TrEMBL record:
Keywords: G-protein coupled receptor, Membrane, Pheromone response, Receptor, Transducer, Transmembrane, Transmembrane helix. Belongs to the G-protein coupled receptor 4 family. One of its GO terms (molecular function) is mating-type factor pheromone receptor activity. It comes from the Eukaryota. InterPro entries: GPCR_STE3 (IPR001499). The chain crosses the membrane at residues 41-63, 70-91, 111-132, 153-174, 194-220, 251-271, 314-333. This is Pheromone A receptor-domain-containing protein. It is a multi-pass membrane protein. GO terms for cellular component: plasma membrane. One of its GO terms (biological process) is pheromone-dependent signal transduction involved in conjugation with cellular fusion. It is found in: Membrane.
Amino acid sequence: MASTNSTQPVNKWALFGFTTTSEERIGPGPPYTHPALQVNLFFRVFLGIVSLFVTWVPARLLWRNGEFGGTVLCVMLLVLNLQTVINALIWRDDNVETWWAGYGWCDIQAYSNFALHTAFNISLFEIMRGLASKVALDRAVKLTRSERRRQRIVSALVIFTFPVIQVILIYFATFGRYNISTLVGCDAVYYPNWIFLVFYILPTPIFAVGAAYMAGVTFYRYRKIDKATRDVARSQDGVAAARQERVRKKLYFMTLFCIIVVLPLIMVLLFRNIVQGAPWNLPYDFYALHFGPDPLNIYFISFTTSDMMDFPSLAISFIAELAGIAVFIPFGTTPEALNMYRKLLLAFGLGYIFPGLREEYVPRPKRGSSLWSSFTRSLRGKGLLSSITTFTRKDSLLPTAEQVSLTSRPDRAPSSSVTQPRNMAMDTELVPIQYPEKTAAGSSSVSHHNPWPDLSAAEIDAATAQVEAGSSHRLRNPFPFPTLVSIAKPPVRFPSLSIP
C-alpha cells in the first residue's frame, strides 16, 4: 500500500523528475486527488470531446476539396486530442498503485507524440504557404491535374520530412522506455544533448516564424486584390461584397492566429525548453544511455505524479484542444459544414430532443444596408438574388443575367427610331440573351418574378432612342435606370447584363 507523506522515504528518482517506477510504485498517500486536479480532468475531457466533434467535419471537407495541408492539420489534431482524452481517463489521479503500466499503448505514443506535434505545426506553415501562392498576383488560372499532384507531393515532403526524422532518431535521443504522468499520460524521456536540440527543439520555431511570415504575405496580397475588386463587388447589390467580406474575415482570423497566438506561444515554449536543457553539452554515449543502470536502460518505465509536475506540463495538452476548436471558426462555419454537423447530431439521436435539426440549414442572404443598395433593390424588384438563382456563370462571383418576365414581351424587330443599329453582343462582350417564344405556360411560370408590368416594344424603343440621342459615347448597358421623366411611373425591370 502507498505510504503516507509523513512516512514516505526520500525519492531517489527526483533528480530525474520522476516519482517512482512501475516496479516500486511508491507515491503520495491519500487523498489521491484534489479539486484542482478534478477541474483539470473535467476540462481536459470536455474540451477534448468538443474538439474531436468540431474538427471531424473540417477534416472531411478539406480532404474533399484537395487541401492537403489543412487535412493533415485536422488529422493531427484528431489524433492528439483523442490521445489526450484517453490518457486523462486512464491516469486520472495520483494513486500509482492502481496505474496501468501502459504496455504497447505507451510504446506507440513514445515514438509518435513529438512527431505528431511537429507535423501539426508544420502543416500550419504549409496552409499559409498554400494561401500565399493562391493569392499570388502573377497567376489567375486554375492548376492542372499534374500541377495539383505535384503540389501535394511537395506539401507532403514539407510536412513529413522532419517528423519522419524524429521518429527514426527517437531511439538515439531518449533514455528509458517511457514515462507516465498524471492526466498527461505517456511520453518519451529525451536526453538533453545536441541531437535533441537540433532535430526536435529548433524545427518547430523555425516553421512558426515561416508561417507568420507567409500569413503576412497572404493578407498583404489579398488586400491588393481586394482594393482592385471592391468597387465592382459592391456594385452588385452586396452579394459578391458579402462573399469577399467573409473571405477577408477568415484570412484576417488566420493571420492574427498565426502572428499573435501561435508564434508567441511557440517562442515561450522554445525558451522554456532551452532553459531546461541547458547547457546542451552533455556527452553522448549510446551504450550508457540504453544498457546502463536504472533509469539509463531501454526497459525502465517511470511514473510521475502531479506534485512533481509544473503548470506547463499539466496545461500543454490544452493547446491542441483549443486549436481544434479554433479550426471550427474558418473551416466549420460554411453551410455545407453546418449541415454535416446537423447530420452528426441526428446520428446521435438528438433529433428527438431538437426537432429543428431535421430541417436542412439554408442560409438567408444578407442584403446590403446602404442607401445605394436599397435604391437599386427598389428598381429591380426582387433584387439580384433571383437572378443568381436562375442564371449564373459557373464559378463566378458576379451574375451574368437577371430573370425577366415574358408575359408581355413580343418578338422585337430592329428599332426604326435608332439611326444606327447597335450590336448587343459587341457592346457587352457577352452572348445575347435568347428569349423563348411567348406561351401561356411560360407566362404563368415566371410572371411572379416581376411585380411591375413590362413596357411594350414601342415604349422600349422610344426610351432607348432618347437615351442614345443624349449621350455622346456608347453605353455599355442599353437599358439604364428610369429618367426623371418616367420616374412617376412604376419602376420597370429591364433585362440587365453585368460584365464579369
